[in-house]
Design a protein that fits this description.
With about 525 residues, the protein is an alpha/beta fold. The protein has 17 helices and 17 strands. Among the domains are: about 40 residues; about 230 residues, no CATH class. It has a 17-stranded mixed β-sheet that branches. The longest helix is centred in the N-terminal third of the chain and has 16 residues.
Amino acid sequence: MISLLDLDDDILFHLFSYLHGQDAQRLSLTARRAYHFAIPQVHADLDLTVDDNPDDTSHDFTAWRDHLLTTNPISSRPPIEFLLHLDLDSDSDSPSQTFETLLEVLAHATRLRTLIAHFDIENGILRLPQLGDAMGKLASLRELSLTNVGPATMEMLHSLPIAGTLESLSLSLAKITPAEVSTACNDPPLALVTVLSRFPHLHTLKLGASPDSLPLLEPFTTRHSIANIKFHGVHHLELGEFVPIALDLIPLFPNLSSVSYTSSVPRGKRKYQDLVADLSWPHLRNLYCYSGFSFHLTPPSAKFSPIDRLTIDLILKEFTDPSPLATQDQWERIVKLMRAFHPSALVLQGCICLWPLRDVVPKSIPWAEVARTVPSLRSLQLHILDNSQTPTQIEMVLKDLPLVYLHITLASHPTAHLDGIPAAMPRAVYSCDAPPFFDAIPTLRVLGLEAQFPAKEPVENTAPPGEEREAAEVQMRRQRWWWMEGTGEDRKMVEIWKEDAERARAIIESQGFDREHGLDGFFTEKLQIQAVYE
């Protein structure tokens, strides 16, 4: 009988590459041949966190270094030769030891593809310039993430020999003072765009900035010259900053597909806003924004292109006491954002707190007004935070929206204790009556209802004899999905799986989707097969 280990070496290397950690270690102990293929995966990923206790730090680093550099008796090679991904997080009181140990490791990690350094890299470069030389020799490196980046680190990156092969770069820019700049390098320091010009094959850029960090543009940049600064290879951009600074540089990446933006304080002076006033945003497939970003995104002179999917992740309250976090002025800014981008899909991923809706006119609900702002909207996802309402009570709020896809998630309020969650909430998802949603929204084809909290009381099983097991399985499901087949009098509502709903959503949110016939026959064949077995 042929066993797994009788396969060719190339096939086994490929199969075993999907193993990580303990799974690979267990398999390596089954046979000598298995060890040969599995042990590289045991040492492929290394995530090391060192605390601020000097004694523990010394012990951790010594054991870690010895383990990586000691030759294994079976493979006759040290584990460091198999290392592919290194994530080092250090808040040590002995930074010199961190830098020296990392330097020794990098000198031997010839296959390293990912290096994530969560420590003061600027201090490391200043104390031990050889760190930059060691990084420059990592020919296999494709992803680099550095924290507390200052002038010296930017100089190192600008001269990095492997800059042309890196595909993903993450930089958290440190706050600096003029004295620190003059100490680290020539004054003025290199701007971000100057350094990025050395990385022609970047497809992912992650950037953290603050008002006191390094400059993003050269001081001599004008509205005319900035039009010639383009980074065509970057498709994914993640920005995290204290106030909006790097946000205005999005037009410099014409081929962006997705942007993720986080700002803890969305107010402040827009440093580069006037320079990019003549430039246009690229057509984005996904725009994710967190905190107050959406309230202050749209400057009067900005030129925006339509986006496919807009996600707003922030705390939005209405009808709350004390005062709400989202004021009427802020809601108006979100409406302006919608009108600027004309998204075909909207995700309100933050906390929408619903309060009694029986006496509320639908048009008085701010987030409902946001959803009605763009006639092209065809996909809507709502994350609702509430302890007292059931999903069927908001159908009147969504009435006559031109939606084709609707996904509603119910979750408990963070201020509520778990024991206080009423059993009616999860039960509402288990036994929800979906037809009212389809009646309120005639264009709706896909509906999903989901609960993200546990039921504290058992759900009463009222199923007929012989169907108890099926009913129990339905009650245990955290989410349910329905599909509306046909039109007019021939409409038929069918419960479907989440995977089918996700396939339909991808079609609905795609460019050029035809509302009338884009989903014709999508489930027809599947429903016919189900009918045979029924």
